[in-house]
Amino acid sequence: MLLSPAEWQAVAVTLRLATVSTVFLMLLGTPLALWLARQRGSLGALCEALVALPLILPPTVLGFYLLLALAPNAPVGELWQFTTGRQLAFSFPALVIGSVIYSLPFVVQPLQQAFASVPGSLRDAAAVLGATPRDQFLSIVLPLCRRSFIVAAALGFAHTVGEFGVILMIGGNIPGETQVLSIALYDHVEAMDYGSANRLAIGLVGFSLLLLFLLYRDRGWRIGR
Amino acid sequence: MSDLQVKLMHSYATGFRINLDTRLPLQGVTALFGPSGSGKTTILNTLAGLGETLDSASVICGDVIWQNSAQRLPPWRRPVAYVFQEPRLFPHLSVAANLDYGYKHVRQHKVSVEQVVQWLGLDNLLARKPQELSSGQQQRVAIGRALLASPQLLLLDEPLANLDRPAAADILRRLQRVSRETALPMIYVSHHIEEVCAIADQLILLEQGEIQAQGPLLELAGRLDTRLAEDESAAAVLVVDAQERDDNFQLTRFQADGQSLWVGAEDSAQPRRRLRIPARDVSVCRERPTQSSILNILETELVAIRELSPAHCLLQLRLQEQYLLSRITCRSRAELKLQPGDRLYAQIKSTALLSDGQQP
Questions:
Q1: What angle, 0 to 180 degrees and rounded to 10, lies between the N-to-C axes of helices A5-37 and A92-117?
Q2: Would strands B186-190 and B29-33 be described as parallel, antiparallel, or unpaired?
Q3: Taking CB atoms and an 8 Å limit, are B106 and A130 in contact across chains?
Q4: In angstroms, what separates the C-alpha of A138 from chain B's closest C-alpha?
């Protein structure tokens, strides 16, 4: 085998984290993007800025505040411990929370743009044909934004795979629980094991490149006129 | 439902105001006619429940409140369908699925898909995507889609404005047939007077957000005191019945109030037609002209005279029940010493047969 058992474990944790995070990202990002796409005033702009913050903040800043919020004596951490009986900081759920916040702009922005690009005139046409807003969303908006959903999910997934700073701050480095690929690679470098580091790095480059290539190749369906 | 009671008031930041209080008959085709920016589309949108909220709006259909100060039925709960100026077909759906869109949202269907497909000539288009259709075909699909929603009222906002003349004429004929065969009430917005004269039963003249005149089309078109009469293209509309066909000269004889008119017309199954007779193509004589090249000379009574300018005036001429308009120079009027009550012979230089007419 190319990878050691510990590295395979890191691959598994990474994929699990990316998958779970993507599910939450889509569930949270879709209504948020829909809401943002309809906002005109300052409140919308403020929320948009908040969502976009992870794009420019150093991940360590985000990680630092998350660490404080998730600590056992902080409200969120305390609530979690009270309901689940487990500590939140340095756990897999903590990683999911961090990833979702960190990757949110990658999901919300393409969706928001897609929603905004669906002409209101088409939704009006659907409305006078008897479609409720829910109907309009499912039968008009969703199909017209299909590609953007794929883009959003893929970017959310890929970005979570590539996450490092936030995880380092809030996840620690527990094999099988919170040790993801990027952290494992960092460990190899710390230990001067450049060969192993290179294997992981090449794997990550290959994966990311393939995903982006597939995404850009399949421009496929666009909103027609 | 018998009529639609509409009261609208709105002031725009630009100073434009809409102020309207009327009853629209829910019967036949009611045309909203007026220049661009006279508030036509705003009225339609309000009837459909679309668009901005007006300062004050009340729409009551029979005894059902669609909208008042306390409530506003959303568009999907109103029994209306809307044909917009652009077709607004759903690009990701085939023609068949577009047609089905409104159909599947209603429980009680008034028409079948087959019937609508036949009315609008859509049989060869069903499998296509909207992007593959010409604009005329797209608009036909849009009309079909609206009809299949089984509305109690069909709103049409300049549905022919973006089409070339043959496509527009084709759709107009189809709409007339639909109107005849379904008795579906329609409100038809247009700033194209020929379209309006061809299809409307009732006419509402809008100007600056207010109703200038309202009534049966045939009556309003023959009046002197409306904005229509002031226009260069003022014309009366006559309802005529086909009598006989002269194939040698390719003319059809029609009868209007007992008098004959020869008009070049294709043979049509529909004996009752509408003629649009431009006022500038009608001249008058005190005595019946003989040996004239003009084919159509009608005996009329001068009812009223309106001076449009120092140069031109407009005459209202009565056949029996129906009216003609004649635009002549004020000089001719002075020389002939025309007075209301005079018997005059109206010479009609040209007439336009408005495609398949409707029962008035």
A1: 40
A2: parallel
A3: yes
A4: 13
The answer to whether A153 and A161 are in contact (CB under 8 A) is no
Output the six-digit token pair for A104: 């949110």
pLDDT by residue, tens only, chain B of 360 residues: 578 999 999 998 888 899 999 999 899 999 999 888 888 999 999 999 998 888 889 999 888 999 998 899 999 999 999 999 999 999 999 999 999 999 998 888 999 999 999 999 999 999 999 999 999 999 999 999 999 999 999 999 999 999 998 999 999 999 999 998 998 999 999 988 889 999 999 999 998 889 999 999 989 999 999 888 888 889 999 999 989 888 888 888 999 999 999 988 776 667 888 889 999 999 999 999 888 888 899 999 999 999 999 999 999 999 999 999 999 999 999 999 999 999 999 999 877 777 554 433
Q: Does A131 contact B at CB distance below 8 Å?
A: yes
3 state SS of B281: helix
Q: How many Cβ atoms are within 10 Å of B266's Cβ, its own excluded?
A: 8
Distance, in angstroms, between B62 CA and closest chain A CA?
Answer: 20
* Chain CA centroid to CA B84, Å: 16
Distance of alpha carbon B333 from alpha carbon B348, whole angstroms: 17
- Are A128 and B76 a contacting pair at CB < 8 A? yes
Q: Which of B216, B200, B230 is nearest to B323 (CA)?
A: B216
Residue in the structure block whose two tokens are 């229509």:
B228
pLDDT in tens, A151-185: 999 999 999 998 888 988 888 788 888 889 998 99
CA atoms of B33 and A67, how far apart (whole Å): 67
Determine the straight-line distance between the first and last CA of chain B, rounded to whole angstroms: 21
Residue with tokens 């009598």: B243
Q: How far apart are CA B168 and CA B28, in angstroms?
A: 20
We find that the CATH architecture of domain A5-221 is Orthogonal Bundle (1.10)
Q: CB-CB: which of B48, B76, B80 is closest to A131?
A: B76
DSSP 8-state class, residue B77: G
* HEC profile of B207-241: ECCEEEEEEEHHHHHCCCCCHHHHCCCCEEEEEEE
What are the structural domain ranges in chain A? 5-221
Query: Whole-prediction pTM value?
Result: 0.83
Other CB atoms within 10 A of residue B269 CB:
6
Q: Which residues pair with B255 in a beta bridge?
A: B241, B260
DSSP code per residue over B4-16: EEEEEEEE-TTS-
